[in-house]
Amino acid sequence: MQNVKVITGTSAAAEAAKLADVDVIAAYPITPQTTSVEKLADFVANGELNAEYIKVESEHSAISACVGASATGARTFTATSSQGLALMHEILFAAAGMRMPIVMMNANRALSAPINIWNDQQDSISQRDTGWIQLYAENNQETLDLIIQAFKIAENENVLLPIMVNLDGFILTHTVEPVEIPEKEKVLNFVGQYEPKHAYLRPEKPMTQGALGDPEWYMETRYDVQQAQDNALKVIEEVHDKFAEKFGRAYGNGLIETYNTEKAETVLITMGSLCGTIKDVIDELKAEGKEYGLLKIISYRPLPTEQIKEALKGTKNIAILDKDISLGLNKGALFTDVAPFLEAKTANYIVGLGGRDIKKAHIKEIIEHVEKEAKDTETKWIGLKE
């Protein structure tokens, strides 16, 4: 019998960390992430999870504690959001550069000023060049499943990079949905035990960590991280396929997922919970005899450019929806990354900043605009007050 719980996205993230039997949790509260580390505190306190739970004084300390723990060979987990993720910025580079397979849940939330606790994806997008793998969940079930997969991906010897699993603040973190919770033994059999092949801060075999990288060597370390990102494309697919076989849930190929694109000449591209709204609109229009498609980006870093190109062959119009903005360029990050290698007319739509509602009417407005009015590479802000 399946174990199904009706839980929030933050609870799903905590359940996933428990199932993966993490050794160390570094915790600092920030809305809307806080309930995730609170739930993990409950698991540790009541004996459901045997882990070291470290209460720190800031998000900078949280990620630093994870780096230290990971350097000993421990399986580590933390969670954050928005300004907290921004405070981690310095150490995010250190974690990736030192090749620490940390897994972190980020509850996507707008950055201030003005202060805003609602959802957009500016926080994680602002960290896109730190070397972390970034995965985006559409719903609470996918949140749990991605975090489980993240441990196996991050700890792969051909990857050894930290992973940030992103879910939309409040839209997922505080909304309850039915989530299937797999058996812990089955999950542990899937992720395996983390056994670093390098000597990680062990007295019997000392090893330098975080050494000086002078001009003679620094460039090679950046190249190695890029190679690991490239390797991750294949590893993410392989881990996804093994997960689908073992647990019966699949998400495209683990990198991207397409929806009703076979006959569609117009396709929308985006990430996260917005994909659910778009699917509803596509279904409504399909009932009217109209064909539109969605390409959901799951892996934003590494970005699966070849898979995206292949999935969009024959498409005439592409609308890329961004919940972020590169100020001064007037483009969203997803658009700037994806549009250059697409052959179809491609327009950018800035949506949902600071938690602004994205309604079905807005999706239909975007479809009509990209088909009839949009110029190639045009940017349009949707839902602005007049």
Automatic annotation (TrEMBL):
GO molecular function: pyruvate synthase activity
Name of the protein described by the UniProt record: Pyruvate synthase subunit PorA
One Pfam family in the UniProt entry: PFOR_II
Naturally occurring in which organism (per UniProt): Methanococcus voltae (strain ATCC BAA-1334 / A3)
Origin superkingdom: Archaea
Record keywords, A-Z: Oxidoreductase, Pyruvate
Entry-linked NCBIfam families: PorA_Arch
PANTHER family tied to this protein: PYRUVATE-FLAVODOXIN OXIDOREDUCTASE-RELATED (PTHR32154:SF0)
